[in-house]
Fold:
Amino acid sequence: MASKLRIPAWLFAAALAGCGSTPPPKSAPPAAAALKPLPPRCDPSAAQGVIGLPIDAGVIEKARAAAGADMARAVRADQVGVQDFRAGRLNLYLDAQRRVARVGCG
Structure:
């Protein structure tokens, strides 16, 4: 009786292989361009309204917000500053009387 129930080994292996599931294909990673952060914004023409004003924290913040900059700084005429470039930074250049003479980004 045992000989009648014998199943060929290859048939048994094929049946078991069909029971396994394959993992779904992994989706492609997003394009590298989509992962890049947006460049910092700074529009010095929008901050021209502060030219001629005496410098204080309120003027700096007003100019920064108008320019859409990430940060702002005041640079005195006699100040030796670092020359690092930051595209999202608004620079307020002061004259000898500590009034805003010009604005620029960088």
Remarks:
- DSSP finds three helices and three strands in the chain.
- Helices lie at 9-19, 32-35, 57-67.
- The mean pLDDT is 81.
